[in-house]
Amino acid sequence: MQTLERKLVLEDGSEYYGHGFGYPADRVCELVFNTSMVGYQEIVSDPSYTDQMVVMTYPLIGNYGITDEDFETRFPTIGALVVREYNDRPSNFRYTKTLSEILEENGIPGLWGVDTRQLTRSIRAHGSRRAILTGADVPREAALARLRATPVPRDAVSRVSCKKRWYARTADHRFHVVAVDCGIKLNIIRSLNRRGCNVTVVPWNTTAEEIALYQPDGVFFSNGPGDPEDVGPVIELIRAIRGRWPIFGICLGHQLISLAFGGRTYKLKFGHRGGNHPVLRLSDGKIEITSQNHSYAVDADSLAGTGLIPTHTNLLDGTVEGVACPEERIFSVQYHPESAPGPQDSGYLFDQFIELMKEDKTHA
Ligand SMILES: NC(=O)CC[C@H](N)C(=O)O
């Protein structure tokens, strides 16, 4: 029997003891849970989880290792990972490294051997809270004092966004998309490339004038970490360019579009994170099973009079899952049509963006 050498202390003083894996560092983060049964590599490398400690409810993690092709960003920035059972001996012909090695390389601590069911129930009951991952021998009061003394970071987008523009091109391209990178997942870029789009990925603080110089057919606003209200420059950018090109936004991008139009966002009790969230498409009553990862949501009442109309609703709690302003060729969704990981019911949204760009080109 190994001794329990690491622990998690939550804001309410509750403690969860376990074993360390990955990078051996202490960390103070917001604690959230994800119910996906597969896809830990994509989750660990999704930049939207920056500064968050993710509890996986699926009880066995690590068993198929890490592959070179399945990263959502090259340098993962998730705060920390908490699992029930960690398997350090993957069985998968595609695997190149173990999960623990990838966490270690990127300075991310992991904790395994804790009762993730109890932890998840506590997050559901009390909401997502902050926690500190530290040594098992650190007295609780000392750990709590460090937790309270650590400020909540508000600059995550600037940390994960690219610093210089970069190109993701495809053979036989028909469209050029400028993607504003607030922490973009690579599968969004792959989804656009597969549909004949050359993508120019630009930093979050790119100006409207700079975007015009790229002569895009459409502009995309990406997913990303943190509170959308902290990303003022991108809200201003959307205000400056709305109506000029077709615009598509995913997750943080959807929240920023809503704020730019005068809507409001608020924090959900414990967010939506998983691969089976049912969403109703209001135009025809079709249900999509979606991949989700967000803490904030757009306030439905705040959309009245903004020009944005709700297009999708979450069937579990009725929250807004999509908005559109058809006259200005703008639409966005709160969930993840690029999946990675998750079901692919919503891939048609990329085709919708292509259609908007096609119409725009024909009328130009
Ligand atoms: N995946 C995302 O883009 C998340 C958006 C935002 N950070 C939220 O948690 O709501």
TrEMBL record:
Q: Where is this region: CPSase?
A: 1-175
Q: Broadest EC class?
A: ligase
Q: Which UniProt keywords apply?
A: Amino-acid biosynthesis, Arginine biosynthesis, ATP-binding, Glutamine amidotransferase, Ligase, Nucleotide-binding, Pyrimidine biosynthesis
Any idea of its EC number? 6.3.5.5
Q: In which pathway does it act?
A: Amino-acid biosynthesis; L-arginine biosynthesis; carbamoyl phosphate from bicarbonate: step 1/1; Pyrimidine metabolism; UMP biosynthesis via de novo pathway; (S)-dihydroorotate from bicarbonate: step 1/3
As its record notes, the protein acts as a catalyst of: hydrogencarbonate + L-glutamine + 2 ATP + H2O = carbamoyl phosphate + L-glutamate + 2 ADP + phosphate + 2 H(+); L-glutamine + H2O = L-glutamate + NH4(+)
Domain Carbamoyl-phosphate synthase small subunit N-terminal span(s) in chain numbering = 4-134
Q: Which GO terms describe its molecular function?
A: carbamoyl-phosphate synthase (glutamine-hydrolyzing) activity
Q: Where is the active site?
A: 251, 336, 338
Transmembrane ranges? none
Per UniProt, where does L-glutamine bind? 48, 224, 226, 252, 255, 293, 296
Task: Please state which protein family the record places this protein in.
Answer: Belongs to the CarA family.
Q: How does it assemble?
A: Composed of two chains; the small (or glutamine) chain promotes the hydrolysis of glutamine to ammonia, which is used by the large (or ammonia) chain to synthesize carbamoyl phosphate. Tetramer of heterodimers (alpha,beta)4.
**Record's function text:** Small subunit of the glutamine-dependent carbamoyl phosphate synthetase (CPSase). CPSase catalyzes the formation of carbamoyl phosphate from the ammonia moiety of glutamine, carbonate, and phosphate donated by ATP, constituting the first step of 2 biosynthetic pathways, one leading to arginine and/or urea and the other to pyrimidine nucleotides. The small subunit (glutamine amidotransferase) binds and cleaves glutamine to supply the large subunit with the substrate ammonia.
Name the record gives this protein: Carbamoyl phosphate synthase small chain
Please give the organism: Pseudoflavonifractor gallinarum
The encoding gene: carA
